[in-house]
Design brief:
Two copies of one chain form a homodimer.
Chain A lengths: L1 E7 L3 H13 L6 E4 L4 H7 L5 H9 L2 E6 L15 H11 L3 E7 L12 H4 L3 E7 L11 E4 L9 E10 H16 L4 E6 L5 H14 L6 E6 H10 L6 E4 L1 H14 L7 E5 L5 E5 L16 H13 L4 H16 L2 E2 L9 E2 L2 H11 L2
Parallel strand pairs in A: 1-2, 1-3, 3-12, 5-10, 8-9, 8-10, 13-14
Antiparallel strand pairs in A: 4-5, 4-11, 6-7, 11-12
Helix pairs in contact in A: 1-10, 1-12, 6-7, 8-9, 10-11, 11-12
The complex binds 3-isopropylmalic acid (2 copies).
One 3-isopropylmalic acid sits at the interface of chains B and A.
GO molecular function, one term (chains A, B): NAD binding
Family (chains A, B): Belongs to the isocitrate and isopropylmalate dehydrogenases family. LeuB type 1 subfamily.
Catalytic activity (chains A, B): (2R,3S)-3-isopropylmalate + NAD(+) = 4-methyl-2-oxopentanoate + CO2 + NADH
Chain lengths: 356, 356
């Protein structure tokens, strides 16, 4: 089985290196191959998603992705900026289902800005549609405003859209995921304003007929943003579109106060996937050896479970991570008095040791 | 001066009644006239925004709005549902600038789900553009998907758009508001993905040249959602589009834990405005006399300040509200042990008395 390793920019290479160490220690015969992506792709090959990198990702059984982005690429035109790599990979690989767990580890309850009673034991799964919506809809651009009080001026515009089949397949993913959890799905939309999301609501309601053992609730996105702050533990699975999912999944991750712990999976229709930490490239701390590698290591665990059919190895890694937390080891982002502060490599080594 | 009073549905009439009491006690010669809106408009006249109500709102110098929406109207087609009234009023009256303060009163710090040190002293002003964006953009609807892998299927679609002049005027509102505060503006966009918001960023940057005494920062909407949870006190003024503003202003309001305290103003180009509490119609507690009228009373204060040129009367009301909080009076939504629980009317009476 072939795994593409795309470290990227900022802390990407350091954290990915720890996950690679862990993968290599499992005693499996994975073939790991690395390639440049993001700013590193642009620097080496003039494009954030170089041809060779895309070809490798397509040929591989799964992709482990670090993070992309760095201030030094801010001045580039949009098509060449690092984040285009991740948008390109999602679209080219058909990675329509983004699974982002927001879990609060009991040992890290203090890291949240929310009161412990509001977030302790938090365990939400956000499922974000990832290849549709206003992210890729056409037409888009800057044009002359055709009518109304601003006619004749320049205007920026984009197209939000969801086809029936796109909504159906992500709804199935959500209902099936809920069956392995608490059997409750909250579909987040803005059906009171948007045609796209009235249509979304109608289709999700229809798919739900096949899952009568799962409870379905519809919620407006503004209310969902409030409920995430007010009573996040009331959610089980949240399913939503690309744009709303971008906002809500980051808000939910931040509720835990330890975004450095949260992995993510982006899956295609055949369970091939791209796995990456929920946090970004943090260029300000890159190269200092202080970044938290656990989200990337846990992303590797998700990869073993969802794309490589190695659920036991995934369990091994997840248990090893719990063990190092129980041992009191903490990178600076999750450090609290009374625990032991360690760097990126030490944390990776500790997980390795805890694998047994 | 003529004020249109639109109580609406749910708790709308009860809370509006308290604000009217306060307005009448100021000793000014305001002419107050009421009309049905939302579900009440539909029930009485077959439309959520009846002709007469719209005419009254247009003729008035300012509008005091309660809240709209009730479960009993859920089955109506979208065009007749209560929330269409508020969308219609915004568009018809040209209310493009929505000002939503998120303030945490020291006495209510405990009501937040966030840790006191994260939110105590919170004072953010969110300025949401209210008549553009994907809320009103055309074309929109359900059509046959024209191309791509879902060609031939039905798809829901909407148009996001902002013309240059729309962005300019809301940017001016934000920079001018910042001058009366801490002189810092965070413009929230998604310039890395959306053409509309790359254009937004360019125009806001251009308008900023006229306000070199104000600091401008650009932030992606997903990051803004995170920073609101992580360190909300770092913000001063946030300016953003209609859709992002809908989500972020509700999240920010919920940070305070006392959304029953938060007023809002929606202004046109000549400082005529519609004023309403930030919370909804809460049909579950309607008619029980327990709703918190303070957000509506504080909305009346904003109305006096922004539309009626009566800043001193606005101060009087705001001071009266602070006084009743200091006296320990609390409606159930903000009640804590050691304070005195009161109902809607008692709270209104207490403010009246505190006016002096
Ligand atoms: C970098 C950006 C294009 C991307 C997105 O908006 O999807 C990021 O925010 C994410 O959530 O992975
Ligand atoms: C009721 C709804 C149409 C409205 C909106 O989305 O603008 C509401 O959420 C608000 O923020 O006033």
């Amino acid at each position: 089985m072939k795994i593409a390793i795309l470290p990227g920019d900022g802390i990407g290479p350091e954290i990915t290196a720890q996950a690679v160490k862990v993968l290599n220690a499992l005693g499996e015969s994975f073939e790991l191959e690395s390639a440049d992506v993001g700013g590193a792709g642009y620097a080496a090959h003039g494009h954030p998603l170089p041809q060779g990198t895309l070809a490798l990702a397509k040929a591989a059984d799964a992709v482990l992705f670090g993070a992309v982005g760095d201030y030094k690429y801010d001045a580039l035109e949009r098509a060449l900026r690092p984040e285009q790599a991740i948008l390109g990979l999602r679209k080219e690989l058909g990675l329509f289902a983004n699974l982002r767990p927001a879990i609060l580890y009991p040992e890290l309850a203090g890291a949240s800005t929310l009161k412990p009673e509001v977030v302790s034991g938090l365990d939400i799964l956000i499922i974000r549609e990832l290849t549709g919506d206003i992210y890729f809809g056409k037409p888009r651009g800057v044009r002359e405003c055709p009518d109304g009080p601003f006619a004749g001026q320049r205007e920026g515009f984009d197209t939000m859209r969801y086809a029936e089949g796109e909504i159906r397949r992500i709804a199935h993913v959500a209902f099936q995921a809920a069956r392995k959890r608490d059997r409750r799905v909250t579909s987040v939309d803005k059906a009171n304003v948007l045609e796209t999301f009235q249509f979304w609501r109608d289709i999700v309601t229809d798919v739900h007929k096949e899952y009568q053992d799962v409870e379905l609730e519809h919620m407006y996105v503004d209310n969902a943003a409030m409920q995430l702050v007010r009573a996040p533990k009331k959610f089980d699975v949240i399913v939503t579109g690309n744009m709303f999912g971008d906002i809500l999944s980051d808000a939910a991750a931040m509720l835990t106060g330890s975004i450095g712990m949260l992995p993510s999976a982006s899956l295609d229709a055949n369970s091939k996937g791209l796995y990456e930490p929920s946090h970004g490239s943090a260029p300000d701390i890159a190269g200092k050896g202080v970044a938290n590698p656990l989200a990337t290591i846990l992303s590797a665990a998700m990869m073993l479970r969802f794309s490589l059919g190695k659920a036991e190895q995934a369990d091994r890694i997840e248990n090893a991570v719990k063990k190092v937390l129980a041992q009191g080891l903490r990178t600076p982002d999750i450090y609290e008095e009374g625990t032991t502060k360690v760097g990126t490599e030490q944390m990776g080594d500790a997980v390795l040791k805890a694998l047994g």
